[in-house]
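User: Structure please.
Assistant: Input sequence and predicted structure:
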Amino acid sequence: MAVFGQCILTTAYLPPVDWFRAAARSGRLLIEQHENFQKQSWRSRCLILTSQGTEALLVPVQRNGDEKIPIRDARIDYSEPWILKHRRALEAAYNSSAFFEYYKDDIFSILDRRYEFLFDLNLDLISLLLRMTGIRAEIEFTQEYINEYPEGDLRKIIQPKYRGEALWDAKKEKTWFQVFPSGRDFVPGLSVIDLLCAEGPNSTEFLL
């Protein structure tokens, strides 16, 4: 089991289980605030499991061509009704789960605030999800951009396109009941919402 004295993570929208697993196994959590926004990453998307398989939920960000946007300045695009789409998708995926009804109001309340900046939306969701999972981790922020930290640098590892060595042995990690298994094997890489809806207050046991 990998344990870090500190872990450096990117911001993320309804982050995957591994994001919270890293936070739970670290004594110090640093969120990168001096990078540029990168599309097709957990910074603005998450994966949930539906009756049709995995579904990506994307928070649209205002962009001007290929112009680089500091992550703190990435503005959310409300020209399309993405909040309604995400609410409906989460309800369809998890309404029949054991604990969704206990968490949905708090999650939806944050979504409905219509944040201007992606970083602020993510931060409030992360803080809420840390409390829900029972993880005791103080959030700190990077003071400058450092290309590579000597320990616990997970910014490139906990991302959807990472294909390198796994942080943890999947065979030794606990799995939970998923609403739509349909005979398939356990589906990894999902938002921590999937774990919370299945295990509720016991979620911490699956992260440590």
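The two ends are 9 Å apart (CA to CA).
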